[in-house]
Design goal:
The chain is an alpha/beta fold. The chain has five helices and seven strands, in the order H-H-E-E-H-E-H-E-E-E-E-H. It has a single domain, classed as 3-Layer(aba) Sandwich (Rossmann fold). Strands 1, 2, 3, 4 and 5 form a five-stranded mixed sheet that branches. Helix 1 crosses helix 5 (139-164).
């Protein structure tokens, strides 16, 4: 999902990068050396430079995964005034509102503008689920990802114009 979103955003003319936290291991927030870690400094720069962020996250136990929450904690105020969207993958359909807690936190703590719709997919939406050859087989999910990219792009352009006034 993250790769499709990245491709869709590039087609719209967005610049930026896809950051896979599996390739950027971060120390746990609250440890003595967490804030001095070079990887944390790198992720902070990426978040600070972004106008918009789409979190593409797995849902575990009715919430976004711990790695994403940890990254938000470590980067803190750098989220201020960003457009934020969500694309989620979960094991079942019943946790579709799981992003609301973190969305509210980002909106209230950092004045983020949250995209009004997000993408929620389950294992049924993927082919070769949980393998290196995994792909999005659901046309509906593909369409919703493209819609999310377009919405995030348009909101970001408008939001940036408003903030420059």
């Amino acid at each position: 999902m993250a790769q499709q979103l990245s491709n869709d955003l590039k087609r719209l003319g967005a610049t930026g990068q896809l950051v896979d936290l599996r390739q950027h291991p971060l120390p746990l927030c609250g440890t003595d050396t967490a804030y001095d870690d070079p990887m944390v400094a790198k992720i902070r720069q990426i978040v600070e430079a972004a106008s918009a962020i789409i979190l593409t996250v797995p849902i575990y136990n009715y919430d976004i995964n711990a790695a994403a929450k940890n990254m938000i904690e470590l980067t803190g105020r750098r989220w201020e005034n960003k457009v934020v969207g969500f694309a989620c993958a979960a094991g079942g359909r019943s946790s579709y509102m799981s992003v609301m807690g973190i969305a509210n936190s980002l909106m209230l703590d950092f004045r983020c503008l949250i995209t009004p719709r997000f993408v929620y997919a389950t294992g049924d939406d993927f082919g070769n689920d949980r393998t290196p050859e995994m792909y999005i087989q659901s046309e509906t999910i593909q369409e919703r990802l493209t819609e999310l990219a377009g919405t995030a792009f348009a909101l970001t352009e408008s939001w940036n114009d408003i903030q420059q006034r």
